[in-house]
Write a structure and sequence with these properties.
The protein folds into 3 domains: 148 residues, Orthogonal Bundle (DNAb Helicase, Chain A), CATH 1.10.860.10; 347 residues, 3-Layer(aba) Sandwich (Rossmann fold); 79 residues, Arc Repressor Mutant, subunit A (Orthogonal Bundle), CATH 1.10.10. Helix content is 54%, strand content 8%. The protein has 26 helices and 13 strands. It has a 5-stranded parallel beta sheet with strand order 4-5-8-3-9, sandwiched between helices. A 3-stranded mixed beta sheet has the order 2-1-10, with helices on one face. The protein is elongated, with a radius of gyration of 37 Å.
């Protein structure tokens, strides 16, 4: 393994205790540095963060360096003439005169090598400091006359100064996260009645606005899903969503859910009351049909002798049976299920409710656990969730009952998960391989636990009333629209929203802007194409929901305008950033996961300089060959945790030396 970093600290090269020991130094390296920075302002910009001048062994070189830096600070050129003038006639002779400055220029093989020699000068300065510190420690030991406590303290102070981290020339490293700073939910993008209420609920419950904001989208999707669709230009999207909020326990999720879903419960009650006469009539008609079928079957079995009469009785019984099968009793309206929802229950509800259903639960981990096979011997069953998101056909097979086919199932999900459940989703390969993870609009808000206000502002009564009135009306009106389409003979397609020409152009622009984000190595969505591939479609769905929420009272059949589309794009970027954080948390990006492993190795081994081969040998279980380390090294370099040491100058032919990397001082202390 390569030697550790040598850090420079100020020393006095004229100190007899140092110079008398033949301390490490290289006059030639110092000359190359000074000549290179006088030749190239770019090299000076690279070298200045590494050196402060005290690292030069010769006092004359320290003087020249300070003059060069003073000129650079004023924006003046640092050529030999200017440097000589800056030093002044009185001191110029002490540094070797003007000819020496020109000699420094002439000795430089290439200005680009200046950074390499600057590292050498810094390393040698640190080596001199080690020598001087050793001399001081020896002197402390010889002069110790009292107890060992004072001596230990003095030795510890000397060693602390010697081993202190030196972060000169290093930028502050950024966390190894695709999205180090997560935005808050843009409440202002919601329709006014929904945004104001969501903000008030967040205030009164002292919860992140993300929770109420995401639920506002989920309840809009419940109202619209399966009742309205949207044409994006070259394809059609349903209007249901899968929204997941990740929050630890104790964040009053149940209170927020109760407040946000209260109007839906009221709408469901009204739908039940409205359906009662129709259900009662259907029950009576069903009983009559059952009695008729039973009577005709009995008559058919009792008819004997007359072949013609037997055929007539059999035909009559068959017709009665067919009539019975065509006389269903509609299920009581049910808009959504809660924490007790299972895959089987969801499938049954979709079949009962004409392909429209939602799961809104403050603790939805069980639902995904069942889908992932936790309670079925590891057999994952995600077909309902996959088809229910896309509005596709679902066949429901149940023991002892006929199969049911849902032509276009539209399921909406609005649930909370605890962070550990999210991690387990990442550990279940089927969730990603089958595409469920990519269908989730994930929010990972910051918990307010420990920072909550004990005297929050109550929800203004007019805000609560407007939310209840508007959402109830939206749910009922869109439900009736969907029912009308389904109950027509033959069934008619549900209404389709469109975009204005300006908004349609913006949809195409988003498609074009999103495509490069999938490029390997450079795209921020390259490691999560399963999610990114559905970003534009999700944005189209959100735009439709915002449009419906804004235009309930003045006609939602108008085209979606550009302002609404722009609000949807903001929400799409919000979910993109949070999805990146979620994918990062579950280790979905192999390069980031490898980079974390490298940082852990640097911390455990206190390695400060290394090559890719050193890394491969240190992490044999992770990197089979040297080139396997490249993605992790690129991530660490771009985040400021490592940097490539300039290669030494080469002459002649031959393969260049493998690059050497230097670790940020913080990398050997804390793993981010």
């Amino acid at each position: 393994m390569t030697k550790p970093t040598l850090r420079a600290v100020p020393t006095d090269p004229d100190d007899p205790g140092a110079s008398g020991l033949g301390v490490p130094h290289s006059i030639e390296a110092e000359q190359f540095v000074l000549g290179a920075v006088m030749l190239s302002p770019a090299t000076l910009a690279e070298v200045r963060p590494l050196l402060d001048g005290s690292e030069f062994y010769r006092p004359a070189h320290q003087t020249i360096w300070q003059a060069i830096c003073a000129l650079a600070d004023r924006g003046a050129p640092a050529d030999p003439l200017a440097v000589g003038a800056e030093i002044g006639p009185r001191h110029l002779a002490k540094v070797g005169g003007a000819p020496y400055l020109h000699t420094l220029i002439s000795r430089v093989p290439a200005a680009a090598n200046g950074t390499y020699y600057a590292h050498m000068v810094r390393d040698l300065a640190y080596a001199r400091t080690v020598v001087v510190t050793g001399t001081r420690l020896a002197q402390l030991g010889r002069e110790a006359t009292e107890g060992a406590a004072d001596l230990r303290a003095a030795v510890a102070a000397e060693l602390a100064a010697l081993t202190a981290t030196d972060a000169r020339g290093w930028p502050d490293p950024t966390p190894l996260s695709s999205a180090p700073q997560l935005p808050r939910f843009p409440i202002w993008c919601l329709p006014d009645w929904a945004g104001e209420y969501a903000a008030s609920v967040a205030e009164v419950t002292q919860t992140p606005p993300d929770l109420a904001g995401c639920l506002a989208l989920a309840v809009l999707a419940l109202a619209a899903g399966g009742n309205v669709q949207v044409n994006a230009g070259t394809w059609v999207e349903p209007t249901n969503l899968y929204v997941v909020v990740v929050l630890p326990p104790g964040n009053r999720k149940s209170e927020v859910y109760k407040a946000m879903t209260a109007p839906i419960r009221a709408a469901e009650h009204l739908l039940i009351e409205e359906a009662r006469p129709r259900i009662a009539e259907a029950v009576i008609a069903r009983r009559i049909a059952e009695a008729d079928a039973e009577r005709t079957e009995k008559a058919a079995t009792e008819t004997t002798g007359d072949v013609v009469r037997q055929a007539e009785a059999l035909a009559e019984a068959a017709a009665a049976r067919l009539k019975l099968e065509g006389t269903p009793v509609p299920a009581e309206p049910k808009l959504f299920g809660g924490n007790d929802s299972t895959v089987e229950k969801v499938a049954s509800r979709l079949a009962e409710q004409g392909g429209r259903f939602a799961v809104l639960a403050p603790e939805g981990g069980k639902l995904f656990a069942i889908a992932g096979g936790q309670y079925s011997g590891g057999r994952a069953d995600m077909s309902v969730f996959l088809s229910g998101h896309a509005g596709e056909e679902i066949r429901v097979d149940r023991m002892g009952r006929p199969s049911e086919v849902i032509d276009a199932a539209t399921l909406t999900i609005g649930i909370c998960l605890q962070p550990g459940v999210l991690t387990r989703l990442g550990e279940t390969p089927e969730f990603r391989e089958q595409g469920l993870l990519g269908r989730l609009l994930i929010s990972v808000p910051e918990s307010l636990l420990g920072y909550r206000d004990n005297r929050p502002q109550p929800i203004p009564p007019h805000v609560a009333a407007d939310y209840e009135r508007t959402l109830t009306a939206l749910v009922l009106s869109l439900r009736h629209v969907g029912d009308k389409a389904r109950e027509s003979d033959p069934p008619a397609p549900i209404p389709t929203l469109t975009f204005t020409p300006e908004a349609q152009d913006a949809v195409i622009e988003l498609l074009a802007a999103t495509e490069p984000r999938f490029r390997p190595g450079s795209g921020d969505l390259a490691h999560m194409t399963d999610w990114g591939g559905k970003l534009v479609g999700a944005t189209v769905r959100i735009a439709a929901l915002l449009h419906l929420g804004k235009h309930l009272r003045n006609g939602w059949d108008r085209p979606i305008d550009l302002a609404t589309w722009n609000d949807a794009v903001q929400l799409g970027e919000y979910f993109t950033t949070h999805a990146q954080a979620a994918y990062d948390a579950i280790g979905a990006d192999p390069a980031v996961a490898d980079a974390r492993a490298v940082l852990d190795w640097l911390r455990r081994t206190a390695t400060q300089r290394f090559t890719a081969r050193d890394l491969m040998r240190g992490l044999k279980h992770r990197f089979a060959k040297v080139t396997d380390t490249d993605p992790a090294l690129r991530v660490l370099e771009s985040h400021g945790w490592i940097r490539r040491i300039p290669a030494p100058p080469t002459t002649g032919r031959g393969r260049p030396a493998a690059p050497t990397y230097e670790a940020h001082p913080d990398a050997t202390q804390d793993t981010p």
